[in-house]
Amino acid sequence: MKFRLSGPALLIAASTVVVIAITLIAQLMTTRLVATAHAGDYDLMRRAFTGTLKGMEDEASSDAEIFANMPAVRSAFIERDRTKLLGECEGAFKLMEEKYAIDQAQFHTPPGVSFLRLDAPTKFGDDQTGYRPMLAEVHEEKSLRKGVAITKAGPAILGIVPIFDSSGALAGSFEMGLEFGPVLDDLKTAFALEGAVFFQEKQLHDIATDLPGDIITSKNRVGKYIRYHATHPDLAAALVIDRDIEITGPKTYERTVAGVPWGVQLMPLLNYANKQIGVVAIATSFEEDKTLARRALVWQVLAALVSVVLMAGTILIVIRGVIVAPLAAINVRMAALAAGDASRPAEPLTSYCEELETLARCYEHLRTQRRP
Amino acid sequence: MRRRRSQSRALMLALLATLAGLVFVLFPLRLRGADAAHAAEGGASARPSTAAARKGDKPPKRLPPDDAGAEAGALAAEEHAPAPPDAAPPTNLTTIPIGKGLPVNVNVGVFFLEVKSFDDTKSEFECTSDVRLRWTDPRLRFPSKNLRGYKEYRGKEAEEELTKIWSPTIEVTNRLESAPYVGRRLRVFPDGQIESLTRVTARYKARVAAETFPFDRQRLTLDLIVREDTTDEVLLRFDKDDVGFSRAATDAKLEGWDIGLVDLHAEAIPGWNGDRYSQATAALIVDRIWATSLAPIFIPLLASLIIPLLSIWMNKVGDNGFEGDAIALANIGIGGLFSVIALSFAIYSSYGVIANSDNTVTRLFGVNYAMLATTLTIVVVFFRYNVIARLFGPYVQREAFFFISWALPVLSLATSIAFLLVAAA
Prior knowledge:
Chain A is of the alpha+beta class. Chain A has helices at residues 3-68, 71-78, 82-100, 133-141, 181-191, 201-206, 233-239, 242-245, 287-338, 354-370, and strands at residues 102-109, 113-117, 145-151, 154-164, 170-178, 194-200, 221-222, 225-230, 251-257, 260-270, 276-285.
C-alpha cells in the first residue's frame, strides 16, 4: 500500500462522503420545505373554496328568506294565486338575475311540487322530491336548508326556506339558486386560483333537462363527468383528464402545462345527502416555488463541489507537500547513502516540518560522517 | 249759391265717408292685432316650463357635440311641432349607465393578431392587437328582430355611434405611438350588452427582465387603465370568455422568440385622496430561443475563461522552483484582461438590456474578472516572489501548484455552468 496514493484518497473520499451527505440533507430539507409550502397551498385552496361556497349558500338562503317573507308574496303563494305571485316577484327576480347572478327561483307546494319557477314561469307542476332530497327535507323538517344540487335548470347553489300560513301550517317553500361560476371567478380574483367544476354527466342528462346544448358535449366530457364551468377552459382541460377525475376523496397532484408546473387540488362535490354529484378542481401555479427549489439544488451542488475540491486540495497539499514528498526525498537520499553515495545533501531544514527536521538533521549527520 | 252749398255738402259727405271707411278698415285690424298679442301672451303662460327653460338663470348643461346637435334639433322640432306638456326629456346616453348599479363592470380581452418586432435592448415591441371591451348599458336594450340578434357598426359608423353612448375611457399607458388607422367594430345586443372591438397597430414600452438571460421569459404587456373614473364607478375585469379570447394568433411569429399564452390580470391602483383606479394588464408571454445567443455571447465568454488559465498551464515546476518567466505569464493575464473588457464592450453595446442588471452574462463576466485577478495574484505571489516556497517549503509549493492547475479550471467551469443552470431553472 502506497500511502502517497491511498492516504489522500481515503481522506478525500471520506470528505466527499461527508459533503455529499450534508448536501443531501440540505436538499432533503429544501424539498420538505417546498412540500410543506405546497401543502399549505393545497390547504388554502380547500379552505378558500369551502369558504366561498359557504358564503354563496348563505347568500342564497338570505335572498330566499327576504323574498319568501314579503307579505304580498306570502299571501299570493298561500292563496295559490300563480298569476298574482308571478306579478309580485317577476320584476324583482329579473333585477336580481341581472345584477347578482341569481340563476333560479322557485316556489314549491308540499311535498316538493313545483308551483312557480320565476326563471321559467310556464313550467310547473312537476314533483321533485325523487331527485332532490334537500327539498324533501325542507318540507319534512319545516326548516331552512342550503347546499349544492342539480335541478331542472342545472346545477346551482341553493337556499330553500319553508313558508308557513297564518296558522303556522306549512304552505310550501321557496328556493333561490345562485350560479356556480361566480364561486370560481371570485376565487380567481381574490387568490389567483384557477378553478373548474365537473358534474356527473348522467345526472345532468336525467335531471338538468333545461341546460343549454353547448354544455353536455364531447369537448367538455372528462371521464364520467362534464366540465360545467372553468375559469380557464384550456388550462382546465390540460390539468384534469379522465384518469385524474375518478375520486371519492380529496386528491392532490402536480402537472406541468406549457412549461408551468401547477398544483391541482381535486375535491368531491357532495349534494345535501352527502352523495357525490361532481368534482371541483382548484389549481395554482407552483412555478416560483419550483424555480427556487431548482436554483437551491444548483447552488447546493456547486457548494458541495467547491467544498470537495478545496478539501481535496488541502489534503493533497498537506499530506503530500508537508509529509510524503519531503519523506520521499529523504528516503531517496538515505538509500543513496546506504549504497555509499554521500554526495546529495538534504534540503534546507526550513523545507521540512518539525517532525521531519530531526530525520533530515540525522541524515546530514550520517552523510558528513560518510563523506571522505 | 245752392250749387256751391251742394258742392260743399258733397265734399263733406265724401270726407265723412272716407273717414268712416278708414274707421271700418282700421278698427278691425287693430282688434285682430290685440287678439294676436293676447293669444301670444296666453300661449307663453300655458307653457311656462319651456319659457323658463329659455330664460332660466342656469346655463344649459354642456353636452358632447352630437348631443348638443341633437338637443338643437329637438328644440327646432319643438318649434314646429310642440311636444305634449308631459313628454319625457330626451335621454342622455353618454352618462354612465347605472341601470345595473355601480361600478360598471367592463370586461377586457386582448387578441394579439401580429407581433411585428420586439427590441429587448430598447425595451419596445410593436404589435397589432384587438382590444375587446364588454359592458352592459340597460338603456340600449331593444327587441331583437333581425336574424343576427344584434346591431353592428363598423369603422366610422362605430366611432360615430360610440360618441352617442357611454363608453369607458381607457388609456393604454405603455403605448408609445400608433399607426393612424384604427379599426373599430361595435355590437349592441338586445339585452343591452355592448361589445367594442378596437384594432390598433402600435409600439409599446415593455418591462424587460433579463435576470435569467438567455433562458428568459418576457411579458409583452398592454397596460389598460381607467383614469377618469374610480373603481367605485368603472371596474375592469375578465371572465372565462375573455380568457378564451385573449391569445396570440396561431400563425403569429416573432424572430428569436417562442410565442406563448396571454396572461390577463386586473388590479386597482391607488390615486389621490384614497381613490383607486382600475387597471387591467394583458401580457403576451414570449420565451427567448436561447440557442440564438449561444454563438455570439456564451462561446466567447466561456472561451475567455481559458486565457487566465494559460498563465498557470504555461508554467512548469522543476527542482529549482518555477521555470516560466513571471513577466511573460503576467502579460498573458493582462492580455486576457483587455480581451474581456473588449468582449464586454461588444456584448453590452449589442445587448443593452443585459448591461444594467444582474444576469447570467454579467455573472460570467464576473467569473472572468475573478479568474484574471486570481491568476495574476498567483503569478505574482507564486511565480515571481515564491511566497509559498519561502513560507512552507518547495514541496508545498509544488503540490499547491499542481492543485491550482486543475482546481481553478474545475471551479471556474463549475461556477459558469451553475450560473447557466440557475438561469435555466
